[in-house]
Write a structure and sequence with these properties.
homodimer; alpha+beta; Aminopeptidase; six-stranded mixed β-sheet; disordered N terminus; disordered C terminus
Chain lengths: 240, 240
């Protein structure tokens, strides 16, 4: 003798009125190319301001254009993913931004509040689609582990514009790089974080990353690097 | 009226007998290529033993051969310099090991004692020249600074075999990378060091490097990385 199933719970109509209205935000991650240099340049400078390192940032549009996207093969050299946002859906069959090496990743977010982006006009996508705004970027390139005998990716920069923060876009960019690494059979994704940036460290650990406490980055740059120009193989530097 | 110049100082003959006898060691830094994979493989495993990380080293000759030297252009991807040593001079007009992109660097060291290298037969140079032994290597590849809008080099590994240590070979390898970076107009050379390795840190600071105390390396690898394979663009991971 089967017991009668209880009736399914119902949500009273009056409670529905209290639920927050949802604002969809359509996002797309795609490979950047030369026409995107102006927005990338603006974001690099915003990142420098955010990090209080503006004095160290000498990137210009021409210098970026001269050093990025000169190779035909993304992922083999310096590579940029852009994350773009729109309040209207991206055409599903859109060929815009498609590169044979990477199929754009689409995701729809449901926000409690609409995005307020006072700089949207400065960050219009180079694809010229209506209402498509560049919200962030990640710049990465191959590295190599001799122990694994495998390439990996090193993430140099990950940046989300202020109006789009705390909505998961940074995680989506990092995930896109990790997914690409797995797809290529790579062994690692690495980056650096400032030791006092506890929120970032927590975020990265939640992403599955190990924060290596014992390693320190060594950097040879500026005059110290230029000094090696004149050190020939035969006179060289003093031996130690 | 000119004063008579003092006679030049002379070294008494009997003192000369106390001067140490000098043993010349001829060295050459050249680009590595596929035929060098076996010795590179042996050195990577010696390095893992030295760092007590043998359990993390899964590199094999085939896996290294499959991932190194597949590009025609050195410096644009993973690049290895070998330092080789000989007790007899390298032919000055030798074309061996010459790549159009890099002219080998020769330097003669004068040692107080001859090198005793019990493993010399295992490390014979792939160039098949007489009495040329591989003594160490450096593996590096391009990285990129968005602030400088310039590439640089990242040094993944620098290793000198035990019999050849404390003779300046590590410095010669690091200098060769720095010099190449300057020649290419690059902005930085970077690497990492363990924070407890005070001798290495002192050495790098003497080389002109800054040791960045605040940065920590984050690494996503193994199962944590593989987990991203199944995270699609639409389901993804939970947003934070």
């Amino acid at each position: 003798m089967a017991a009668a199933a209880p009736p399914p719970p119902t949500v009273p109509a009056e409670l529905n009125m209290d639920l927050p209205t949802s604002y969809p935000l359509f996002t797309r991650i795609r490979l950047a190319a030369k026409p995107d240099v102006p927005v990338i340049h603006k974001m690099i400078h915003q990142m420098a301001v955010f990090e209080r390192l503006s004095d160290q940032c000498s990137a210009t549009e021409p210098s970026l254009a001269a050093t990025l996207f000169s190779k035909n093969n993304p992922f083999e050299s310096f590579t940029v993913f852009l994350i773009e946002a729109s309040t209207t859906p991206f055409p599903s069959s859109s060929s815009t931004g498609v590169n044979h090496k990477f199929i754009p990743i689409h995701k729809t977010l449901n926000l409690d509040l609409p995005i307020s982006d006072p700089e949207s006009e400065k960050f219009t996508s180079s694809t010229m689609e209506d209402d498509v705004i560049v919200a962030g970027f990640v710049l990465f390139f191959p590295n190599y582990s001799t122990f694994l005998a495998k390439p990996g990716f090193y993430i140099e920069d990950l940046f989300v514009r202020e109006s789009y923060r705390r909505k998961g876009l940074g995680k989506m960019l990092l995930s896109a790089v990790a997914k690409q690494a797995v797809a290529m059979g790579y062994g690692r994704v690495e980056w650096v974080v400032l030791d006092w940036n506890v929120n970032a460290i927590k975020f990265y650990e939640q992403m599955g990353a190990d924060v290596m406490q014992e390693w320190r980055v060594c950097r040879l740059t500026g005059d110290a690097l230029q000094g090696y120009a004149t050190a020939s193989g035969t006179d060289g530097l003093d031996l130690i």
